[in-house]
Amino acid sequence: MRESVQAEVMMNFLVSEELSFRIPVELRYETGDPYAVRLTFHLPGDAPVTWAFGRELLVDGVLRACGDGDVHIAPTDPELLEEALIRLQVGADQALFRVGILPLLAFLDRTDKLVPLGQERALADFETHLDEALDRILAEEQSAG
After folding, report:
1. Which of 12, 24, 106, 131 ranks highest by number of CB atoms within 10 Å?
2. By the 8 A CB rule, do 12 and 95 touch?
């Protein structure tokens, strides 16, 4: 049985140094994919955009700067731990968001109660789902190429 944790937080979308606006962002964690969290951004005038990345990255990112590749998370002030910056990047395009750390910690605490950090592997059907997903990806690549 799949279980999930959801929360909605308000984030500041930092368009430039002079322009930012608040947007609702849905946070979601599911036992069917126990290593990942999903953030769905509801930008005005656009379809919602969902990003998935490691739950551990979000945990680490509220405490210290971390991230490789497309997702980087860092507290704005590591001593105060009031807000964090989340930078999402695709190629040369990037989006920067500022969010309060307390709502993230509350969400992460709820995910930890559902599946404690480090216990993700204990979910019996995870490896089966991973194998199925990898088989689908490989089949799609073979049919496309």
Report:
1. 12
2. no
**What is residue 113's predicted lDDT score, i.e. its pLDDT?**
94
Mean pLDDT by 10 residues, the chain (145 residues): 89 94 96 93 90 95 93 93 95 94 96 89 65 77 73
Q: Classify residue 31 as left (phi > 0), alpha (psi -120 to 50) or beta.
A: alpha
**E runs forming strands in the chain:** 4-14, 20-30, 36-41, 49-54, 71-75, 83-90, 93-100
| Measured distance CA(19)–CA(24) in Å, rounded | 17
Residue ranges of alpha helices (H) inside 68-115 are 101-114
Give the C-alpha distances (Å, rounded to integers) separating 64 from 24, 34, 40, 56, 70: 24, 22, 23, 12, 17
The radius of gyration of the chain from alpha carbons, rounded to an integer in Å, stands at 17
pTM for the whole thing?
0.81
pLDDT value, residue 126? 57
CA distances 113 to 4, 31, 44, 118, 120, Å, are 11, 11, 33, 12, 12
